[in-house]
């Protein structure tokens, strides 16, 4: 199986996340991309929406897509949601052989040294790193060697190989939507529209549940 996973806090999930998942799946010829909301992200602020709300929004966003599904793996584990543990669990879930691609933006990749057991991640997956607005080639060309993951330059300028044969591939043909969940929460808090920044089903859910409203708002 050739599968992708895109994890995140998804507070809320937006069209940028979905575009990244859809286009990366096409670019890498993946059978499926699994969206995995983090239950307790170790690097995020404490004041995030409940896991159940974020899971529900992610499921709504993936509805109607034949290329995406949602897994609640991290919501069923206690403690912080560490990516290395999710990768290990996916291998137990799907078995072998499994060609797994962990999808992340370049901005997130440049913080990977702060992740638990990051040097072991490529024991379980390939890394598919999507270039992001404001981050350019120079950012990762100098960064990759210092990770000490044994990565060697491949036959293409955007490809590196780990000792076990897994790949780090930099994807530069994915559509850039300069969106963030923080921006969406701020716009809602200011009473501004986010209708065309998130799927309509997610927009309805946010309004119904009154998520991200200013404290004390009755809007």
Largest sheet: 8 strands, mixed
User: What's the Cα radius of gyration?
Assistant: 18 Å
Mean pLDDT reading: 92
The fourth-level CATH homologous superfamily is HUPs
Q: Give the strand content.
A: 15-25%
Structural class: alpha/beta
CATH architecture: 3-Layer(aba) Sandwich
Helical segment tally?
A: 7
Choose one word for the global shape: globular
- DSSP summary, beta strand count: 8
The CATH class is Alpha Beta
Proportion of helical residues: 25-40%
Spans of at least 5 consecutive residues with low confidence: none
Query: From N to C, what is the helix and strand string?
Result: EHEHEHEHEHEEEHH
Characterization of the model:
With 219 residues, the protein is an alpha/beta fold. The chain has helices spanning 15-27, 51-62, 83-94, 106-109, 137-141, 181-189, 200-209, and strands at 2-8, 32-37, 68-70, 99-105, 126-130, 152-153, 159-161, 167-171. The protein has a single domain (2-179), classed as Rossmann fold (3-Layer(aba) Sandwich), CATH 3.40.50. 30% of the residues lie in helices and 17% in strands. The protein has an 8-stranded mixed sheet.
In short:
This protein has helices at residues 15-27, 51-62, 83-94, 106-109, 137-141, 181-189, 200-209, and strands spanning 2-8, 32-37, 68-70, 99-105, 126-130, 152-153, 159-161, 167-171. The chain is of the alpha/beta class. Strands 3-2-1-4-5-8-7-6 form an eight-stranded mixed β-sheet.
